[in-house]
Design brief:
One of its GO terms (cellular component) is plasma membrane. By secondary structure, this protein is mostly helical. Helices cover 78% and strands 1% of the residues. It has helices spanning 3-30, 37-62, 70-88, 91-114, 120-139, 152-155, 163-181, 183-193, 195-200, 205-231, 242-252, 264-283, 288-329; strands spanning 157-158, 161-162.
């Protein structure tokens, strides 16, 4: 194998990780405080919520779907969770309520997509509006304060490890296991890669898509609890823009927007790339409006790169087939 081919293999396998390492080097040069334990811990805690959302997004995108409602559903689920805790004082019940609410919203997403054949973009866009409206209606647009011990979910620690990071690690493992060691994971890759072929091979497409949305709902509910706990209040307007951060993390992490490709590990790296960029911009006092432009540009570039890579792969495969056919004719 020549050096050029070796470089291509390394770039393809470790390219995203190398980008993260490069960002760490640049950030360290720009600000000496970047590599401090406190700052790295802050980055990890800050990206934990959007990374958990990104895991659900990854599972959906792999199967050819997506979720634009997770930021709004996060707000509704977290808000109702805080409300239940203030009424009952039960952390367990509050935690379960958040998951149940988010799962119900995602079941509705799944029904719209599977039963009524609504494009996932439209279905989840509608849910985004409905969930946000429900959250604002429930509190009449007011925040819920004085949430007491509820903060343990997002501000507590176990053996010195912040609870958001513990949740992140657990959900990362669950996502990896689902995608690579279960029949559901294999089915989701097959559906996203070629739905017609998946149907022909006996995969129950609608059932598996519904399962994907339910799993996403569980993750969104947990993220809602962590978010409200971290901000120390129930915010009906919370989580705005989280859906795009989760989507960006997933795509940057190597999940193909056209489906069939993606990993849990890649999503973690993608989320930390986004989190590191945000941290660099904050440390260097980049204008907040400019930050929004940069984030939008990153999403566009990630999707363009994904489309370009897939087109190049298709051309390469087509070329190989043509060469084989020419050889057979000879």
């Amino acid at each position: 194998m020549n050096i050029s081919n070796r470089f291509k293999r390394v770039r393809k396998k470790y390219g995203i990780l190398l980008v993260l390492i490069l960002l760490f080097i640049i950030a360290t040069l720009l600000n000496s405080n970047f590599l401090s334990a406190r700052n790295l811990s802050n980055i990890s805690k800050q990206v934990s919520i959007t990374t958990i959302l990104a895991f659900g997004e990854t599972i959906l995108i792999i199967s050819g779907m997506l979720d634009l409602s997770n930021g709004s559903v996060l707000a509704l689920a977290g808000l109702l969770s805080v409300s239940v805790f203030k009424m009952t004082g039960s952390l367990l019940l509050a935690f379960l309520v958040a998951i149940i609410v988010a799962v119900i919203c995602n079941i509705l997403n799944g029904i719209m997509v599977t039963k009524f054949k609504t494009p996932p973009f439209i279905a989840t866009l509608a849910m985004m509006a409905m969930a946000r409206g429900a959250a604002l209606l429930y509190t009449n647009g007011q925040n819920i304060y004085q949430i007491g011990d509820y903060t343990i979910f997002g501000q507590g620690s176990i053996l010195g490890i912040p609870t958001p990071i513990i949740f992140l690690v657990i959900i990362a493992f669950v996502t990896w296991y689902i995608l690579h060691h279960t029949r559901l994971g294999r089915s989701l890759y097959a559906i996203g890669g070629n739905e017609e072929a998946a149907v022909a091979s006996g995969v129950n497409v609608n059932k598996n898509k519904m399962k994907a949305y339910i799993i996403n709902g569980v993750f969104v509910g947990i993220a809602g609890v962590i978010f409200m706990s971290r901000v120390n209040a129930g915010l009906p307007n919370g989580g705005q823009g989280f859906e795009f951060q989760a989507l960006t993390a997933s795509i940057i992490g190597g999940t193909s927007f056209s489906g069939g490709i993606g990993t849990a590990g890649g999503t973690v790296i993608g989320a930390f790339i986004v989190g590191t960029l945000n941290n660099i911009m904050n440390l260097t006092a980049v204008n907040s409006y400019l930050q929004q432009i940069i984030r939008g540009a990153i999403i566009a570039l990630a999707v363009i790169y994904d489309t370009y890579s897939k087109n190049m792969k298709m051309k390469s495969e087509k070329g190989e087939i043509e060469v084989e056919e020419d050889e057979k004719e000879e």
